[in-house]
Hints:
By secondary structure, the chain is an alpha+beta fold. The protein has a domain at 75-297. It contains ten helices and nine strands. The chain has helices at residues 17-33, 37-44, 73-97, 114-133, 135-138, 183-194, 218-240, 247-250, 255-269, 280-287, and strands at 49-55, 58-64, 101-108, 143-153, 158-169, 202-206, 275-279, 314-320, 325-329. Strands 6-3-5-4-7 form a five-stranded antiparallel β-sheet, sandwiched between helices. Helix 4 packs across helix 6 (183-194). The radius of gyration is 22 Å and the shape is globular. It binds zinc ion (ZN). Residues 24, 43, 46, 66-67, 69, 72, 74-75 line the site of zinc ion. Zinc ion binds next to helix 3.
Amino acid sequence: MLEPLKDISKSGKERPWNEKKQMSLKTASLFEKANLVKKAERMTGCGDILTFKKTSAGLKLNQAFFCKVRLCPMCNWRRSLKLTYENKKIVEVANNRQKLRWLFLTLTVKNCRGDELEDTIKDMMQGYNRLLKYKRVDESIEGWFRALEITKNNEDNTYHPHFHVLIAVKPMYFSRKNKYIPQEEWTSLWQRAMKLDYTPVVHVQAVRAKKTKKNFEEIVADIEKSISEAKAVQKAILEVSKYTVKDTDILTGTEEQKIETVFTLDGAMANKRLVAWGKSLKKIRDELRLAEKENDLIHIESDQNDDVSDEIQKVTAYWHIGLKTYVMKN
Ligand SMILES: [Zn+2]
């Protein structure tokens, strides 16, 4: 009898190893058809064998090979878990240092064709740097995290690259005219930074707690407010820490479209800084030395690294090609 892998997270959810592995194999076959043979081969072997440590808190991944191809669904799942963990850490430290509020900014440009995507992304990276250097912006914000997302529209075969930005501001940002940047101004600043001859779509939103029920005691209300505000910030972190391309965007459309999509995205995303931190958030990231572990997709939470003892029981799961599922090796 083959025992299936069961990896349950702290919150009681089963970790989606099988689903991600299946999607990686599908993506790998698209890579092969797009003539990206070397990457296809690597991706096919991605996460074939997983070694876990058995701990009281459940399984902890200890050893694995991940292909690190930028469009690999398995690797992107790992990257997004890691990014979420990192951003939570960074935001936590930032919030402990000074009273902060958070903004969620989305910067877009018009959809483009596949053959324009790489240049569009390059322009956006430059535009973003220009925007953040404007005195108006620089003096209003404390720190930022920026993530590139690219979605595909299979109806008209266009791509929609856009930035999600999480911004830390001082509470007075909202009350001082010389600090506060209204939506129209963000829009015109982005238009100027991008040198666009049209008005781009820009969204800005304060990360705000949903209103909680009124309480008699103000202190209780205050605590509740700060808890739900923290939750709202967590939600925003999850939102910005998703990886660049949704798995479903690669794996939908006609076969021809899918091949075109992986080929285009693979080229356009090469050698790009898909996520970046700035100002106070970059400083904190540097202090926490998170960049050093950037390529480690095995250990998601850094405190998971310490080996207490080698005596801990290890278990290995391997991908069963026929059953299309992970099974335990005894
Ligand atoms: Zn991979």
